[in-house]
């Protein structure tokens, strides 16, 4: 009896979805037309801030206009925002002199991007009371690998019996030979960022890194640019630079000047709207940027620079976005809710476009009903799991919809997770119910081989049909959607380095000293410790947190069950919270 009732309910729900009809027909050909433009070599991989990305934006704008969408950016269809593109280090603004000998920038040495910036340095040091004192010469103290470990993996200390406070230290890259310390796990302590934090904890005045014998002597730096300066100068020296130092005796006269040039650039989201009967809005989005020539840490490709066309990631989502825009603009009956179509830029650089929009909406943000993100929807036929729908846990109404949906056109795999590395996360953190529609990962992900030949255009048409089923159902449902905090983050692989998680969403946009929390997940250590959205983590355990990299570095040190003190800035106040992992 119970079963019979359930079946009746399923049929009645499926029957009750009155799909929105349109004069416009979405076909595999109309989909491919957009992908051919967006994934063409002439757009050079649509990297943020590059001409190819702007060309893609202009194409999408023309499509939105042709479809008859109203412009709803800040500047017509565009919404501009600025971002940190590069940190430049030029010989005009940087110098290093030691006992009258000049080191050559990029040949003998570089200041690291994380170094203190805009600094004219004369030798200084600190006395025991911490007062700065001027000196004309200083010792450089070598602290071997600069590693200090005292945890379960073993005990090892390069700082033992060394008075480094206020001194310049030199530190080798890498870690001691495993043979000599079979029981010590150096893997969590050998990155530059680990060593920098350890040295700063010992109150050194400056750090010089160098490469030990027997290794490639190329200058290295962190590849990332979204880092914030440390309070001390930090250099990397090649062998030639070290030789120039070692030619002189134990004491040095040195002066240096560091200027890191923070190059900012502008990028843009493309936004248009189909006005419905009400100003309550459904946001439909897809990112149009990709990885350019692969010269970014997000690329998984190794080899000569090559164009990453990103046909699946995410020309596929944008093609569907444009086609849906045409579809609803020509709907036979006006939709109940307004539909905002947005093509995001800067997703690959850290959800920049989506975060900028979510924080500066060009519509009334209190009237946003839900957000639907299409990111990588071009490979349906090769996926056993069919179409993945993530974020189902962000409102009970999604759960109700999928529970009762009897959908035959494509196989659906549902996940409650609401936070993942794609644009919908920027909306979930604003407490807007959001779904990520996704045909799944594949071996060509973030490689030049993610190209047009592999695209399943019939599959994308099926995805647009599913989108219409979903949108049509919610268009007739008058009930407001109440956001529920999803319990877990993306189900994907967590990097092995981390055995714990704090359960927070990083703020990728606000540039602050520290790690700003943009959202707190339910039932995770951060929530239990009392952390709130907007808090800035300044210290976790012993590690001072300057940016997300320090944060990840700190996290790698903890294990389940550890309790540590976190210092958090909330408003003007710094508070201490106890976090148990
Ligand atoms: Zn993507």
Compile the SSE list and pairings.
Layout: H1 2-16, H2 28-38, H3 51-67, E1 70-71, E2 78-89, E3 95-98, E4 101-102, E5 109-111, E6 119-121, E7 124-126, E8 132-134, E9 140-142, E10 148-151, E11 154-157, E12 168-172, H4 192-201, E13 206-210, E14 234-237, H5 239-246, E15 254-258, E16 260-274, E17 281-287, H6 311-329, E18 338-344, H7 352-359, E19 368-374, E20 387-390, H8 396-404, E21 412-415, H9 425-428, E22 434-438, H10 457-476, E23 504-506, E24 515-520, H11 525-529, E25 536-540, E26 543-544, H12 548-555, E27 563-570, E28 573-580
Parallel strand pairs: 9-12, 12-13, 13-14, 17-18, 17-19, 19-22, 20-21
Antiparallel strand pairs: 1-16, 2-16, 3-4, 3-15, 5-14, 6-15, 7-8, 10-11, 16-18, 20-22, 23-24, 24-25, 25-26, 25-27, 27-28
Helix pairs in contact: 2-6, 2-10, 3-6, 6-10
């Amino acid at each position: 009896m119970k079963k019979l009732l359930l079946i009746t309910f399923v049929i009645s729900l499926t029957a009750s979805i009155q799909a929105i009809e349109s004069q416009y027909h979405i076909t595999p050909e109309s989909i491919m037309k957009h992908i051919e433009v967006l994934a063409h070599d002439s757009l050079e991989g649509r990297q943020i801030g590059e001409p190819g990305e702007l060309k893609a934006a202009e194409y999408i704008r023309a499509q939105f206009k042709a479809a008859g969408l109203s412009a709803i950016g800040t500047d017509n269809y565009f919404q501009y925002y600025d971002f940190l593109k590069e940190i430049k280090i030029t010989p005009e603004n940087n110098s290093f002199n030691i006992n009258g000998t000049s080191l050559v920038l990029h040949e003998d040495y570089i200041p690291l991007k994380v170094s203190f910036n805009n600094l004219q340095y004369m030798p200084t040091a600190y006395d025991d009371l911490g007062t700065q004192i001027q000196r004309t010469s200083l010792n450089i103290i070598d602290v071997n690998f600069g590693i200090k470990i005292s945890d379960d993996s073993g005990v090892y200390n390069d700082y033992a019996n060394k008075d480094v406070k206020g001194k310049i230290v030199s530190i080798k890259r890498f870690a001691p030979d495993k043979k000599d310390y079979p029981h010590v796990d150096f893997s969590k302590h050998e990155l530059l960022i680990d060593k920098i934090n350890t040295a700063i904890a010992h109150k050194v005045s400056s750090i010089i890194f160098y490469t030990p014998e027997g290794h490639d002597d190329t200058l290295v730096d962190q590849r990332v640019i979204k880092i914030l300066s440390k309070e001390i100068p930090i250099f990397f020296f090649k062998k030639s630079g070290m030789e120039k130092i070692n030619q002189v005796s134990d004491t040095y006269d040195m002066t240096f000047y560091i200027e890191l040039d923070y190059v900012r650039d502008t990028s843009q989201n493309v936004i248009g709207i189909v006005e419905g009967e009400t100003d309550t809005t459904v946001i439909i989005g897809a990112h149009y940027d990709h990885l350019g020539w692969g010269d970014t840490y997000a690329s998984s490709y190794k080899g000569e620079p090559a164009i990453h066309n990103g046909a699946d990631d995410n020309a596929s989502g944008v093609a569907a976005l444009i086609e849906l825009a045409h579809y609803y603009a020509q709907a036979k009956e006006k939709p109940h809710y307004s539909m905002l179509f947005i093509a995001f830029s800067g997703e690959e650089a850290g959800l920049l476009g989506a975060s900028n929009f979510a924080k500066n909406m060009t519509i009334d943000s209190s009237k946003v009903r839900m957000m639907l993100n299409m990111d990588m929807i071009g490979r349906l036929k090769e996926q056993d799991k069919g179409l993945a729908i993530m974020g189902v846990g962000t409102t009970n109404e999604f759960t109700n919809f999928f529970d009762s949906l009897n959908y035959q056109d494509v196989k659906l795999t549902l996940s409650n997770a609401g936070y993942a590395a794609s644009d919908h996360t920027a909306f979930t953190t604003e407490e807007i119910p959001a779904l990520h529609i996704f045909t799944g990962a594949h071996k060509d992900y973030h490689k030049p081989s993610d190209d047009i030949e592999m695209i399943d255009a019939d599959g994308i048409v099926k995805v647009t049909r599913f989108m219409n089923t979903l949108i049509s159902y919610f268009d007739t449902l008058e009930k407001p959607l109440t956001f529920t905090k999803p319990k877990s983050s993306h189900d994907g692989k967590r990097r092995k380095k981390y055995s714990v998680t704090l359960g927070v969403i990083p703020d990728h946009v606000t540039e602050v000293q520290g790690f700003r929390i943009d959202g707190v997940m339910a039932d995770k250590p951060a929530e239990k410790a009392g952390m709130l959205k907007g808090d800035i983590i300044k210290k976790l355990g012993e590690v001072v947190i300057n940016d997300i990299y320090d944060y990840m570095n700190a996290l790698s040190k903890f294990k389940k069950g550890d309790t540590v003190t976190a210092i958090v800035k909330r408003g003007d106040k710094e508070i201490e919270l106890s976090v148990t992992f």
